[in-house]
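Q: What does the predicted 3D structure of 3-oxoacyl-reductase look like?
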Amino acid sequence: MVDMPKYGLLLVVLCLALLSSSGQSDISIEKSPFSDSSNSPEDQLRSDLWSKARLILGYVSTDMSLEAAQASMLASIYMGASGAVAEAFHWAHATAVKCETMARLQAKRDTISGGFRRLYWMSFIYECDFISEISIVSPSGIARYEDKIPYPAFTAENHPISPDSSEARSQEELVAFQITTNSAIRRFLNTVNSVVYDDKEQFRTRRLNYASWLLRISEDLWSHHSAIYRNLPEFLLSNPSQDVPMTGADTSSPASLQSPTARIQGIPIGNNSWNILRIKGRYYAGQYIIHRPFIEFIVLNIDNFESHPCKDAVLKRSRSCLDGCTGFIKHLYYDCHPDGGDDLSDI
């Protein structure tokens, strides 16, 4: 008897492996995204595998096993790497719905498996990222369990396949650290949204002291957001080719001892380009989210804004919002075109 969730998981993993080996998942923005290689045997094989994987994923759509949820999570990642944003969002939301149901049961247990911890937080990150940009469905409710599901443990689980592989264990520790870091950033951005954009708090916009309140709260939020990024380990924002040391030459130095990854030995130097893009992107997204209300304030008070006592401070914060937008676009474009590429207007 075939275990369908595991079979579906295997098919999606094979799709990701073929996409990665083809080089088509490399970060680039081309004028002609559809190349002649679409009819190659490798692409045809990948297309056939994905067609079969979709059938299996549909068959196990009501299955609440860990493998079924892992398969749909990887399907979202695969579709995102392939450039199919809408379908990537579909599978991310489907995974979050599964995780919400599973979290309800897991939260009642004394111990929660490392596999589910990683899946939960990956799903949390992806759904929140999509919801913040494409609000076409109601959230799954997965965020209700963010205080009950622990972050992934930094001690790797033993696997029967390679129990003595120190490199594999180190890689698992690194993955756990990456998930934890990105989850913490995403949770903070969710907090910003709930504080500044809560529909129930819209009465604040009609108060005379709204601008003063907004200036005070945005200062606190931006200070916290900036502090998060100032304390990120250097390797998270560095490409492996940059050869950046993780802990410094002197392992007894304060910087080494304070590094969250100082205890992880033998892990690769630098970070994957997609991971770097996501981390940097969230920095600029946070800058935009925190300061956007100031632009809205100007638009809603355009008739009286010239005489407003907080005019200069509001304009300064509005500039920060625009800097976040331009920073996001320029960072995405120039990281994709390290040689300078074509003119930015070609995007």
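A (community wiki): The structure tokens above were generated from the sequence. DSSP finds ten helices and no strands in the chain. The chain has a mean pLDDT of 78.
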